[in-house]
Specification:
The chain has two domains: about 1-65; about 80-320, Spore Coat Polysaccharide Biosynthesis Protein SpsA, Chain A, CATH 3.90.550. It has about 350 residues and is an alpha/beta fold. α4 packs parallel to α11 and α5 (about 140-155) packs across α8 (about 240-250). Strands 3-2-1-4-9-6 form a six-stranded mixed beta sheet. A two-stranded antiparallel ribbon has the order 5-10. A two-stranded antiparallel sheet has the order 7-8. Mean pLDDT is about 85; it is low at about 1-45 and about 60-65. A hairpin with a 7-residue loop joins β7 (about 195) and β8 (about 205). It has eleven helices and ten strands. It has helices spanning about 1-25, 50-65, 75-85, 100-110, 140-155, 175-180, 215-225, 240-250, 270-275, 285, 310-320, and strands at about 90-95, 115-120, 130, 165-170, 170-175, 190-195, 195, 205, 210-215, 305.
């Protein structure tokens, strides 16, 4: 009977470990939950170490199986052509405290589809890696972080790419849709794009969290002429607003990036808020499109969403790039505004 009882409780332990495994699939093994928290009988001595070992093995096996799952036979020739011809460097604003909780998820999901992605922080981390900027952490220094970040990419990569995007470490970007949008634009013109807010700055400015992208000419003006503190604020204030105010002074133009049906592409909140509402009071007033909400307000070729935590970032990546409807072949839509 003792052997039967021992086998029963070991079986319970393994079963619970398997059920927890799905919830932990995308977590680092170092952050696995304590198995004892899931045990129905706390006063029984169970082999927790053995249970954890089984759980880690199952997670590892599941990851291998995921890597070996059947590949889609999609025709991505158009996307690949845009990858070659619309070259986008993305730099992500992060910090030392966010590398394992935010930036790593960007790196492992949509960041892989950028022509080049870089992570800028207040400290250099050669293992991640991040580029350390000569500024302090904190919201009050985000303007300096952006100015220094754009300066770095200008000094090292201005001739290698056509467009230069700044994103936060909780921004999710669909790179294929960004390139499609930019394919009708001229990077030699002084322009930039993002989620446009008509507030304070006469021509409007773009939400930092939704990500905004500068043409090569806009980047050149920001760095060569915007470095003058008499023209552009170098630190302090609201980062996205200050960058918008600076670029307006330099003759860099904003425009509404909505698609041909008037639907939004860049989004300053997580998908749920843009679908169902519950947005802050200022949103309908500041948004150039008066804060439209609902599925019909979001472009088929949406580009970005903000406030996306790591687990949701991986979920979005799974639904966008893995799931398909059997028997349906999707054609490309012409949703760029003709100018």
């Amino acid at each position: 009977m003792a052997n039967i009882g021992r086998g029963f409780f070991i079986g319970v332990t393994v079963g619970i470990a398997m059920s927890v495994m799905l919830d932990c699939l995308y977590l680092n093994s170092d952050s696995l939950p304590t198995l004892a928290a899931y045990l129905p009988v706390a006063n029984k001595k169970l082999d927790i170490d053995r249970g954890l070992a089984i759980m880690k093995t199952n997670i590892s096996n599941t990851r291998v199986e995921a890597d070996q799952r059947p590949k889609h036979h999609d025709d991505d020739s158009v996307a690949q052509e845009l990858y070659r011809n619309v070259r986008v460097l993305v730099w992500v604003m992060t910090g030392p405290q966010n590398l394992k909780t935010r930036a790593i998820h960007v790196k492992n999901t949509w960041g892989k589809r950028a022509n080049k992605i870089m992570f800028f922080s207040s400290e250099t981390n050669k293992d991640f890696p991040t580029v350390g900027l000569n500024t302090s952490e904190g919201r009050q220094h985000l303007t300096a972080k952006s100015m220094l970040g754009f300066r770095y990419v200008y000094e090292h990569h201005r001739n290698d790419f056509d467009w230069f995007m700044k994103a936060d470490d909780d921004t999710y970007v669909i790179m294929e849709n960004l390139r499609y949008f930019l394919s009708g634009k001229n990077s030699s013109e002084p322009v930039f794009y993002g989620f446009l807010m008509k507030h304070v700055v006469k021509q409007g400015y773009y939400s930092g969290g939704a990500g905004y992208v500068l043409s090569r000419e806009a980047l050149s003006r920001l760095i060569t002429r915007g470095k003058d503190p008499k023209v552009c604020r170098q630190d302090g204030g609201d980062e996205d607003m200050e960058i918008g105010r600076c670029l307006e002074k330099l003759g860099v133009k904003t425009s509404d990036p909505s698609d041909a049906l008037g639907r939004s592409r860049f989004h300053c909140f997580e998908p749920e808020k843009h679908l169902y509402g519950n947005v802050p009071w200022w949103y309908p007033t500041w948004d150039v499109n008066k804060g439209k909400i609902g599925p019909d307000s979001i472009s088929n070729y949406a580009i970005s969403f903000h406030y996306v935590p790591g687990n949701k970032m991986r979920t979005l990546d799974f639904f966008i790039y893995h799931l398909r409807q059997y028997g349906i072949r999707h054609g490309n839509l012409n949703l760029n505004v003709q100018t």
